[in-house]
Each structure stands twice: as structure tokens, then as C-alpha cells.
Design goal:
The longest helix is centred in the N-terminal third of the chain and has 21 residues. It is built from twelve helices and twelve strands. It has three domains: about 80 residues, Winged helix-like DNA-binding domain superfamily/Winged helix DNA-binding domain (Arc Repressor Mutant, subunit A, Orthogonal Bundle), CATH 1.10.10; about 100 residues, Periplasmic binding protein-like II (D-Maltodextrin-Binding Protein, domain 2, 3-Layer(aba) Sandwich), CATH 3.40.190; about 100 residues, D-Maltodextrin-Binding Protein, domain 2 (3-Layer(aba) Sandwich), CATH 3.40.190.10. The model has no long low-confidence stretch (mean pLDDT about 90). A five-stranded mixed beta sheet has the order 4-3-5-12-6. Strands 10-7-11 form a three-stranded antiparallel beta sheet. It is of the alpha/beta class. About 45% of the residues lie in helices and about 20% in strands. The protein starts with 7 loop residues before the first helix and ends with a helix. It comes from Paraburkholderia fungorum. It holds the Pfam family LysR_substrate. InterPro entries: LysR-type_TF (IPR050389), LysR_HTH_N (IPR000847), LysR_subst-bd (IPR005119), WH-like_DNA-bd_sf (IPR036388), WH_DNA-bd_sf (IPR036390).
Length: about 300
């Protein structure tokens, strides 16, 4: 097969179907009709000799062959886009660019206030959207340039990515002021006896907390499990539950929720909070500017 045999627009449809998995959503994004999307997919199927996508109750699921094409096609389209839209420099003061940054709810609490304050000063027309940095989907989103940067603890993003450390972070115990443990101190025995709220935070590296506690041979009484950190301050404020959380999050909750911290009696490895970007955006001027702004604001 020669390149002249393929309409570039067919690859754009293919890439969007990989991302959104629904013909209606792709039609809406590309501004064309659903029959046109179906026609494009049928043309690709004939050209490539594969079904590419199978219709299921969960949407259009890619075949194994389509999955092997996903990364090279996404990379090629991104390279073409960046080349056609490349500028020799980025002018933050006049830019109206919309960036997408992946981070957890902790990241939104810790990073966004300072980032938005800085943008108001130096890039008033720039906007930011955040998405969750779940590693199972984030890799594909960054490969396809749907996410510009990721910030946080993401040990699974390695091959094909650059990263730069912002700071190291330790875990602490978090609880309400006046908690019985505040006076007695949190020994290993007291830690084991206390009732805990455990934060699952799937797709991030925070699962290492449970692993470290288990390896230490410490049993703890988990009374509540939640999928994210956003409600933890509210929960601890009115109960005797305790939580093991990153220090950066703890610092942002002490005053608003009347909480206190103590060193964790279980040895939990420090984590590295990084800023990450895909190799395809390594030299893109706007991406370079934003990640330097984040680094200058938060690096320790």
C-alpha cells in the first residue's frame, strides 16, 4: 500500500474513534454526519483488510490490529498538526491557547490556585482544563496530544515521556484537632487500633500506602474507603477517623477543616511529584513555556 492510496481524513476519523469509541461523538467533534463517519470507517476497513472496530454495548471497541496502529497513527497525526501550527516562539501575554493538564484532586487543591494566579499575571488569555491522571488512559491521551502535561506521582509513565521532579513528598497521618491520638501520640499500636479512612485513588501511585502498611505487618481497621481525596477533610473534621495522606494535601486542609497531623509510625517511602510530558511535545513552544512556569512555581 502506498501513501497516496490513503486519505488523511480517514486516519483522523480512526484516531477519534480510538479516543471516543462512539460514532455520534466523533461526528460531533469533527463536525460531520454519522453516515459520513461510518462511510470513512468502511473505506478504511477495505483498505486495511480488518474490521478495526467492533460495535458493542460499550461503544466501538478496537480490534488487536487497530490497537497496533493506534500509537504510530496518533504520533504521526500529532507531528503533522504540530508542524503545521508551529511557531518559533510562544507569546503568553497575547495567547488564547487552551491547555489540558492531568492531575488528581490533590493536584487541583495544591497546584491550581498558584497556577491560575500566575496565569492572570503573565498570560491572561490562556485557559486551563484539568482531567484525572489515571495511568491506564492517560498514556493514550498524551500520545494523541489531548493532554499537554501531567503533574503528580505517576511511576507508570516512562517510555516515550519526559519528566522533571518538582519536589519529594512524605506521607503523614491526618486527623481532627482534639483527636484522642493528638495527645497520646500515634504509635504503631495506636495506629493499628484507630479507625481509618483509606483513599483508593485508582490509576495513581498512591496504592503504595496500603502495600507499605501490609508489608510492615501492621493490621489496620479501615472503616471507610473512598475513591479520591476531595471529601477526606470533611470526613475527618467530624469523626475520629484518621487518614494517611501526602503532606502537601495535609497542609492545605489544616486551617479550612481544623485538622492536625503527626508523623506516620509506619515507614512509607517518600514519593516524587513530577511534571511529565510526551516526547512529541518536547520542543513545542507552548508546552515548553507552561511546564517551565509550573517548574519555576513549585520546584523545591
Amino acid at each position: 500500500m502506498e501513501l497516496q492510496d490513503i486519505d488523511l481524513n480517514l486516519l483522523v476519523v480512526f484516531n477519534e474513534l480510538l479516543r471516543q469509541r462512539r460514532v455520534s461523538a466523533v461526528a460531533n467533534t469533527l463536525g460531520i454526519t454519522q453516515p459520513a463517519i461510518s462511510n470513512a470507517l468502511n473505506r478504511l476497513r477495505k483498505l486495511l483488510g480488518d474490521e478495526l472496530f467492533l460495535r458493542t454495548s460499550k461503544g466501538m471497541i478496537p480490534t488487536p490490529f487497530a490497537q497496533t496502529l493506534a500509537e504510530p497513527i496518533g504520533y504521526a497525526l500529532g507531528a503533522i498538526y504540530n508542524s503545521l501550527n508551529a511557531t518559533s516562539h510562544f507569546e503568553p501575554a497575547s495567547s488564547t491557547r487552551a491547555f489540558t493538564v492531568a492531575m488528581t484532586d490533590i493536584g487541583e487543591i495544591y497546584f491550581l490556585p498558584a497556577i491560575m494566579k500566575k496565569l492572570a499575571q503573565v498570560a491572561p488569555g490562556v485557559t486551563v482544563s484539568t482531567v484525572r491522571n489515571q495511568a491506564d488512559t492517560l498514556r493514550e491521551e498524551m500520545e494523541n496530544s489531548h493532554v499537554d502535561l501531567a503533574i503528580g506521582f505517576l511511576p507508570d509513565l516512562t517510555t516515550g515521556f519526559f519528566q522533571r521532579r518538582l519536589f519529594r513528598q512524605r506521607y503523614v497521618c491526618l486527623f481532627r484537632k482534639g483527636h484522642p491520638l493528638a495527645k497520646a501520640g500515634i504509635t504503631t499500636a495506636a495506629f493499628s487500633k484507630a479507625e481509618h479512612v483509606s483513599i483508593v485513588a485508582e490509576g495513581t501511585g498512591h496504592g503504595m500506602v496500603d502495600t507499605a502498611i501490609q508489608r510492615a505487618g501492621v493490621a489496620r481497621h479501615v472503616r471507610l474507603r473512598v475513591p479520591h481525596f476531595v471529601a477526606v477533610g470533611h470526613i475527618l473534621q467530624t469523626t475520629d477517623l484518621i487518614a494517611v495522606v501526602p503532606q502537601a494535601y495535609a497542609e492545605r486542609t489544616l486551617t479550612p477543616f481544623g485538622l492536625d497531623t503527626a508523623p506516620c509510625p509506619i515507614k512509607i517511602p517518600d514519593i516524587s511529584i513530577n511534571i511529565l510530558w510526551h516526547a512529541r511535545n518536547h520542543r513545542e513552544p507552548g508546552n515548553q513555556w507552561l511546564r517551565q512556569l509550573v517548574f519555576d512555581t513549585f520546584s523545591q
